[in-house]
Every structure is written in structure tokens, then in C-alpha cells.
Amino acid sequence: MPDYTPPAPKSERILNAAEELFALHGFDGVTLRRIATAAEVDVALLNYHFGVKKKLFEAVFLRRAEILNEARLNALLEAKAGSGGQPSLEQIVSAFLRPIQHFQLTGDQGWRNYLALVAWVNSSSVWGEEMMHKSFDPLVSRFIEALKKNMPDADPQRVYWAYQFLSGALTLTLAQTGRIDRLSDGLCRESNLETAYDLMIPFVVAGFRKLCLEQFESGT
Amino acid sequence: MPDYTPPAPKSERILNAAEELFALHGFDGVTLRRIATAAEVDVALLNYHFGVKKKLFEAVFLRRAEILNEARLNALLEAKAGSGGQPSLEQIVSAFLRPIQHFQLTGDQGWRNYLALVAWVNSSSVWGEEMMHKSFDPLVSRFIEALKKNMPDADPQRVYWAYQFLSGALTLTLAQTGRIDRLSDGLCRESNLETAYDLMIPFVVAGFRKLCLEQFESGT
DNA sequence: TGATGAATTCAACAGATGTTGAAAATTATC
DNA sequence: GATAATTTTCAACATCTGTTGAATTCATCA
Known about the structure:
Chain A is an all-alpha fold. Helices cover 75% and strands 0% of the residues of chain A. Chain A contains 10 helices and no strands. The N and C termini of chain A lie far apart (72 Å).
């Protein structure tokens, strides 16, 4: 007796439509009717499956968070395993960023929408704090621990601040605002994610080194 | 005959209230009635002074943009003047960031609200591009030119990408999400802007160096 | 087939939204 | 101090908002 239960088909269409629209316009910029229209579904179905609007938003936000967390945790564990428990700074930062790049590069447009949504939430002062904290901070704390262990003499405050700058650089890349395309007059393409992450990692690693390893120097 | 015209008092109250509420909740998260209530003004007055809602938003956004641009340009010119036309990387980055810190630290809460609003716009994919481009990119381009001149052998693409990471780190700091406070369990305070900028500058400078000056090295 | 429960649609609600035109109040001009 | 212009309020509009309960369709299984 296979207890295979096919997922309610329309509820997934709702989640996908909501994901894209919330990513583009934020929570208040999207109406339930617009989501319903995009999903080719009646409005009442949204309440039936997900309850009130905020619950729908949370359902969208949580759907891929666990997958992302697991991928990042695995990357961190692999970095530790492959280095005898002493991963380098590059390895830690790469384990944090490369899984995101991986999901952005899968053909699935849903992942790009979702990550843009994460960027929106992370930049949103009112909405953001609680959702980001509950969904991602447990994992982030594990990376912070790895960073502290890698740089045991670093002032912990500097580790947190450096992480904040890393988080900001990443967030703007996820947001897909297209600004670098215009600023550079087409020379750089925000959609060129290989370049983005290939450069983001050494940029961030150099910043960590400067703040956390050369903290007692007073260089020019 | 002094042609002194005192600014319409209530229109400024509207701008201030709108500034704060838009910064907190974004464009769609704020209703005209809420702004009117906060400004202790009738709703119709918003349309009388600023036209439709989007025009009010633009008026809020543009009000302080020129002041900010002028301060940053002056800082860049001073850095050039004080260095015989060859400002260092630190000087360029500082000229870009320190004026913002300055405005955040004036007692005026309005500036903090405004800069949080800039962060919101910069992270907003639909809204952001046009407004940021028109308001800030002309000035940003001058900084990019200074950076290219400082590092003439650097691949221009890398300069733009490094700027993108700088912009992201700055944006998250402006957004005032309070996330670093919770992540660090109170060890770091996002409101501690001196520390934020004292660390952001060397972090970013180290990243620029790595990407634009050591671009041909293949170090671990 | 017919009964049961889940999924989906229909129709509608009470309230909120952006916007507007006319009236009232305030300020400036002569 | 009367007149004109500007500013502010009042009252209301059509439309849209999130949400709900009843009706309908669909799938499951005895």
C-alpha cells in the first residue's frame, strides 16, 4: 500500500506565483487577487490552503529555506572534512556562498525568485528581523563559529561586522536590481553569476583578513 | 523688498512623516491616510501639494539627494586637493562613505529615516533602478573614475563589481534592520555607527586591493 | 454506484484605498 | 479693509482590499 500522496496541484501553483510576485513587489505590493490570477486559481483558494495573507508569505519563505540551509551546512561540513577540521577562510566563505550560486544557476527560475525574496526580507527593517532570525541565524551562527575558530585571536565584534558586510554584498547580488548593468553601461552583467561569486569570495576574504587578522596593524 | 517666502509649513510636515513611514514600510506599505494622520493634516492636502502618491514618494526621495551628492562630491574634491590629485584608495572610499556617516550622526532623525529609505529603494528591483540611477549614478560615476585612475591597470569590470560589493555592504548598514544585534546577541550594536564605518572602510579597501591590484595573482 | 471528505469555485461582506471637486479658512495684495 | 490667491478641510466617489460561508465539483473507496 504505497502512501504516495500527490501534492495538491493548485497549492503549488499558488506558492510559485506568490514567490515571484512577492520577490518583485514585496508583501504589500502584491494582492491576493493578483497571485490568484497568476496561478489561474480562485482567490478563496489561497485562504483555504494557507490561511491569512501573512501565513502565505511565510509558507513561501520557509519552503526553500530548509533546502538552502541543508546545502550550506553540508558544504561547511565537507570543507571541514576535507581539511582535517581546519578549513581555510576561503573554504568557509565559499561554503557559505557557493550553494547559493548553485541554486541560482539551476534552470529553476523559482530559485532566483526565492533568493530575490530573501534579499527583500533581509533589507526590510520591520518584516525582516524575525523571519531572517528564525530561518537563517541558526545556520549563520555555525559559520560564525567556524570563522572564530579559524581566527582565534580576532576580536569577535570584528567577525560579526565582517559578516554583516558579507551579508550586504550578497544581498545586493541576490536582489537582482540590474544596477551594475546600467552603471557600467553594459560592461558588467548582474546575471553573470559566475563572475559575481568568483569576485565576491576573494573580496570578502580579503576584508575578513584585514579586519580580523591585521587588527593590530595601523597601516596607512 | 525681501522676497522671503516661508515654506508652506504643513507640506514639510507631510514630507517628514512620509519619509519616516516610507523608510519603515516601503511604498505600498504606507497609506496616504497614515501619512496624513502622522503629519496631523487632512488627506486631501497630500494631493494638493504633491499630486499622486508616487510623486510624493519622489519628492521625499529627491529632497535630500542633492544635499548628499554635494557633500560627497566635496569630500572627493578635498581628497584630491589634499593629495595633489592622486588620492589613495582609502581616501576615495572614505570620501564616499564618511559623508553618509556624518549625516546619520547629526541629531536629525530625518536623515536616518532618509538613508533607510535609500537602502529600501536600492534593494527594490522594480522601483529602485530608475530612481537610484537618476539620483545617484552621476556622482557614483565620478567615484568610479577616481578609482580607475587610482588603479590604472585594474580590469574595469573588477572595479564595478567591487563597487557593487561596497554598495551592498553600505546598503545593509543603512537599512537598520537590527540583525547584527540579534545575531551577535547584543555584542555588536547596529546603532554604533562609528564602529560600523571604521570597519567598513578597511574591509572594502582590502577587497578593492585584492580584486583590482592583485588580479593576476593566483594565491590560495 | 453511492457515500464521504477534500478541493475548488461562487458570491458577497465590511472596510480601506487613492483621488477629486467644492466649500471654508487663511494669507497676501492693493 | 475689500479683493484675490493660496492653503486647508469636508464629504464623497468608485474601486479594490482581505476574508468568509455556502455551494459545487472532484477524488477516494466501500
